[in-house]
Amino acid sequence: MLTTTDTVPLTGPPDSAALRRAAAPLTVTVDDEVRARVTRGRRFFHAARHGNGSGGGDRRIYGATTGFGALAGFAGRADEADQCDNTLAHLGAGQGPDLPPGIVRAALLLRTSSLARGLSGVSVEVVERLAAMFATTFCPAVPRYGSVGASGDLIPLAYATQALRGRGHAYLDGRRMAAAAALAGAGLRPLALDGRDALALVNGTSVTTAATALARDAVRAAHRALTALTCLLADVLGCDPGFLDADLMRAYGHPGAVDVAARMRRTLTGTAPSGTRPLQEPYSIRCAPQLLGAAEDALRYVDGVVAADLGGVSDNPLFFPGGTGRGGGDGTAAEGKVVHGGNFFGQPAAFAADVLASVTAQLGNLAERQLDLLVDPARNGGLPPMLATTPGTQHGLQGVQLATTAFVAEIRRAAAPAGVQSLPTNLHTQDVVPFGTQAALRSHDMAELLGLLCGSLALGLRQAVYVGARRPTAPRCAALLDALSEAVPPVDPDRPLDADVRAAADLLATPGLLATSGSPATSAPPATGDRP
Length: 532
Hints:
Blueprint: E1 7-9, H1 16-21, E2 27-29, H2 32-50, H3 80-88, E3 95-98, H4 101-115, H5 124-133, E4 139-140, E5 143-145, H6 154-164, E6 169-172, E7 175-178, H7 179-186, H8 195-202, H9 206-237, H10 246-252, H11 255-267, H12 283-286, H13 288-311, E8 318-320, E9 337-339, H14 347-375, H15 398-414, H16 436-466, H17 475-487, H18 498-508, H19 513-517
Parallel strand pairs: 1-2
Antiparallel strand pairs: 3-5, 4-6, 6-7, 8-9
Helix pairs in contact: 3-8, 4-9, 9-11, 9-13, 9-14, 9-16, 9-17, 10-11, 11-13, 13-14, 14-15, 14-16, 15-16, 16-18
């Protein structure tokens, strides 16, 4: 099996970087502090459930002594192991293609972290066995459709839990197979759960939060890329950078715009305007700091929601042992308390994912419009149409420009808010739902298309210099062009460009690339194969 030295401790909440790394094997550690607080919560649950301690007895505890959802008014199964099946069997109703393994493993890392807080009443063994899974390539097969993001991501997390029990299907080393075979191949034993364990595994918004966090990271990467590409566009066209003036931005008054413009001024340090451009550039250049700045302000809101969700506990009920020890006590009375509530309600992530969708749509509009400007000889400073080397016999970026139009249309179609589309379900027990899962997965899909739009624009800028645009005069912009030129050959003659767009998109998402291009550098000579 694959191994890794990458380590994620469960002492505190994971960050989104850990969620990204969870797509591959990594070491998740359970230390004595985590064991102590989980054990304390488990003991309190048993005391409350069985009446053999300070937690009191004869309490009705949702999911432990009762049925589920609309049937919570009926008694559950008496046998605790059998109650596990009672929890999971009816939730096997998902449909559609499997979720990407990266989302599923990120969701399980979040679920493990939430359980490790010690407020869910699960056993230490459950937490330790979940942690052990991450050192392997095991990944449950989870269908996309079925969650409303209200009582947690019940159906998708039920599929994940069943796979960990050896039921259903899973992936191992990227191959889909029976879950029991995947567990055996990974050297893992099937999980044995009681009803409380099973409910705690499914009763949280981990899929929604994971997809939102991963989408946010991808959109932030695209935002950084588009900010740098806008500078490169302005430089190769010879634009005057006055539209980034610091006094102008301060007068605008929006902190995101002030910060983005400052970043762009640094990137364009050393640029020499050509003097041939119009007095006022098109909005896709002149208003870029305002647009990108508004996106930055919106992304900061999403950042706050993601951070809160990563650090929160999404489950129901929660078990607060008495006292103020590290086991999750919050100053409650000495006997502790069992609290039934709605921490599984994914409305914050739904709103954040909807904001993320709006940001993605407008960033996509900007990238597509900038590429359209670049291929249009009426606006690109006299470069050949479609940046073709010999128009008519060659067609340059014509296919890529068509594809970007399709990408933007798809993004716009998907950008309608999901978090306000409440639809009652479950005999009106869930009479208002946030549809956070739909919002999050949709935003994750859109973020991938935005990355391809950035890759398309990058390919256009690389080709523009090849067919006659000036070489960038700002050292930072020149460094970015050189990186693109090394990764993507010029389009001469025509060839399929799908792989080139993906290569450019992957390059722009490379950690540190834009930071490198944003630092002072000596302008290098043209890349091999470029025209002088």
